[in-house]
Amino acid sequence: MSSAQDLRPIVIKKAKSHAKPHGNHSWKIAYADFMTAMMALFLVLWLLSSASPKTLVGVAEYFKTPLKVAVAGGDKSSLSKSVIPGGGKDPMAKDGEVMRATTNDPSDAQRRRDQLDSERLRALKGRLEQIIENNPMLRQFRPQLLLDITSEGLRIQILDTQNRPMFRTGSASVEPYMRTILREIGPVLNEMPNKVSLSGHTDSATYMNGERAYSNWELSADRANASRQELIGGGMQEGKVLRVLGLADTMPLEKNDPLAPVNRRISIVVLNKRAQAQFESENASAAEVSVQAQKGKAGQEMQAQLEAASTPAARSAGAPKGKIE
User: Fold this and answer.
1) How far apart are the first and last CA of the chain?
2) What global pTM score does this model have?
């Protein structure tokens, strides 16, 4: 038989926890993300403020150029006027944006080709500036090198100075430092298919060479040709040279001082496609005129021979002799 103690109910007591409940700490993660983003923003702003304008243009152009275009070449999508990349179906034209640009508006396609050519020449200019900056030999001659973009293309001018002439006085003999500059520039010009034009300039001083007068016209032409030889000696393809000019003192850089040393210079122009096509068409038309002139001269000579053969004296001289009845 159970005792009285066994009939008492069993009571279970649980100890109460005095620790404070944890709150929602997700805001800490959001705050950390916010601080990270702000740090990245200030870092980008600092880099932008310390970069040169040329570097900023290069970075922007890098991000605007797709990888496929950078590797294989071609027009960038940033040149397109459509908000739909790549053209595609267009309710205004059957074959899309690209076909419409090339067929219905040739001037727009030509303008885009000119813009792309100009961008490539600017990239070549930046490449040359980088080579000059990184080469200790060329860096010391940087004040004598002028690079700019003209209507004909990228112009590289090598200037003469009083203390550092490019050529020996009155001759086309290249000085050693000038040879170094030309041979460093030569291989870089092969990076683009564009042709090159060279021109020599002198000051207004006149020279005498032996018994005959040696004017600035001969001197400037000889110096331009000597520069061409040094460019080829440095590795430039010989077929890239489209023309070599001697301009004497007709285009001084310092107009107020015709005898200024900077007027003695060599100009190397990497021609853009438009200027190159213009010069080549002029050469082709001149050759055609020469051929036509040669044909006209030959025709006149043949006509004169026919007329001479058709005269009575020629006919009687050429007729067979026989007995006159």
Assistant:
1) 190
2) 0.56
